[in-house]
Amino acid sequence: MAYLTLNKTKLNKNFQFLKSMFDDSDISWGVVSKILCGNRMLLGELIDLGVREIHDSRISNLAKIKEINPDIQTVYIKPVSKRNVAKMVKYADVSLNSELTTIRWISEEAVKQGKMHKIIIMVETGDLREGVMGDHLIEFYSQIFELPGIEIIGLGTNLNCLNGVMPSTDKLIQLSLYKQIIELKFNKKIPWVSAGTSVTIPLMLHKQLPKGVNHFRVGETLFFGVDLFEEKVIDGMDGDVFTLFAEIIEMQEKPLLPSGTLAANPQGEVIEIDEDLYGRSSFRAILDIGLLDVDPKYLIPEDGEFEILGASSDMLILNLGENPKKYQVGDVVKFGLKYMGALSILNSSYVDKVVSE
């Protein structure tokens, strides 16, 4: 059976790198745990690092975090649906919001539960996912800051989440100015400008982060050590916290081209024939993992001498050429993972998860 490992030593190295960086700049931060898909064992490893604030987009995952350690500050990081407001208020201490109606529902539920629920107002800064338009922000704030059961603790934004718009110093300065305007107009303190996600870290590394930004929400860089501006691992961090291991379940020398009448495969693809390959063969390996678990485009073969040919629902097909490494049935093949690949595999109940040193 295929399995995924999380290397706790490398995860700790990445955590300590980020913690030191944020501590030196007096910036608060929390870890985005959604990639772990609520796996209790892996969440426990995260909490054991010393994380005291965890963000997730699934309420059930926040519930597990509270079961493991109720003192962790939990943050719900997407707009909540009406039917889930009560559960969200129960398990999330903080939520990111951009809808007036929703915040009123949260206020009513917080009062019912006898809680003070904290809110970060999300502001649109160009990527066109969630967020209040800047021109409407003052009016928006005026309608919610006195609601019972609600405490506005920050203004936030998300970039590079939908249309690929990258953060910039100018955009983050604008968000900080919104905070100052609101504080002056309403005589209310807003503690956080939560403009930092993994994609914002390069601005910090290059000392281009405006001083007003004082809160980060970090997932991808913690688990992959990546600079998302340059798409490379940051010096001092590790990019291979996760490793996928898949077993060879068939090994045969086969023609390079299929034979017979061709139609679309189950993924809707029609194979194009390269006539130069007629009469040629290679060794093909079938691995015990497939599209049900991960899209092959998110896999990074550790062995650069083979090619991923494709996948069906439960099998991954490799072209090993002349098989110079002498792979056999029962051997295990290793892969690094891109973020979306790790997310898919961690969400698959068919792939075992293992913590390694």
Describe this structure in words.
The protein is of the alpha/beta class and 357 residues long. The protein folds into 2 domains: 7-233, Alpha-Beta Barrel (TIM Barrel), CATH 3.20.20.10; 242-356, Elongation Factor Tu (Ef-tu), domain 3. Helix content is 28%, strand content 26%. It is built from 10 helices and 19 strands. The strands form 3 sheets. Strands 8-7-6-5-4-3-2-10-9 form a 9-stranded parallel sheet. Strands 1, 13, 14, 15, 16, 17, 18 and 19 form an 8-stranded mixed sheet that branches. The protein has a two-stranded antiparallel sheet with strand order 11-12. Helix 7 links the parallel strand 7 and strand 8. Helix 4 crosses helix 5 (100-113). The model has no long low-confidence stretch (mean pLDDT 94).
